[in-house]
Amino acid sequence: MYNHIQAESSKNLLKSIILNIFIVIFEVMFGLVARSLALISDALHNIADVASMALSLWGEKIAVRPSTNRKTYGYKRVEAIIAFVNGGVLTAIAIFIIIEAIKRLINPVEVAGMQMVVVASVAFVGNSLATYLLKKNAAKNLNLKSAWLHSFQDSAFSLAVIIGAIVINFTHIVWMDAALSIIISVLLLKEVYEIIIESIDMLLDSVPKDINFQDVKTAISVFPGVICVGDLHIWQTGTDYRILSAHIQTKELDSQERIKLLVAIQKLIKDKYNINHSTLQIVSQSEIAMGGMVCEHCN
Q1: What is the pLDDT of residues 59-83, one digit of tens each?
Q2: Whole-prediction pTM value?
Q3: Using CA atoms, how far apart are residues 237 and 272, in angstroms rounded to an integer?
Q4: Domains observed in the chain
Q5: Sheet architecture: strand order including 241-250
Q6: Which residues 6+ apart lie within 8 Å of 281 measured at CB?
């Protein structure tokens, strides 16, 4: 079931999708009339945003499904899958726009500057409203972060088109339209690259970028009674769901000391590193020798 925050984020995503659909229709229609590649490229970017927000909305609904006997982690990782797909689509669109813009630089086309100003101003207002709606829950996960980031970029890009259109209207420098398209696309590629890398890291079970692996290992190792820490793994299946597993070799401890050590380590892991799920195997040297335990994949 959705909680209050998830319901609010889904509602704001839906509003933003509707806003962006109207912006796309508006910019394509007048972009063709004004023969402005900057307006059309901004509209294409908005199409990608509509797809991104729709996927994010779907992902929000899927991610809360409970785990099953086959999908023991549930569907939380759909967040990373969606972000990766969105990144791939946005990359293809950006490359297409850059190629078309280069053609325009070689063979400039006259554009209607003032029409660009009016249309881009309407898009700027709509994108700014969508950005405002998505901002509140943008830090919740990679889905919402990517949706908010795209919307924020749209606002910035629309503002850039307005400035460029004013320059074109008063100076008749028609290549400014194509130049703006290239700038918009390059900036888009930079941001998309970061989202793709973050989603790949999540899919590859990489250590979250704000956690220092060696620091965690050292922090556990200094607890009284701990001899060494091995088979340590830290990963995440979603932005808000981090996991740690470790094999901890200790001195000979009685049951009460072992429980105290376990509780202390788990508290450190949660409070300092924001890791909300941990699995710790605590064994003494005698237990290792007795059981013939050999870790062939310890790190």
Answers
A1: 777 777 777 888 877 777 887 888 8
A2: 0.72
A3: 19
A4: 4-203 (1.20.1510.10), 213-291 (3.30.70.1350)
A5: 226-238, 241-250, 277-284
A6: 231, 245, 246, 247, 248
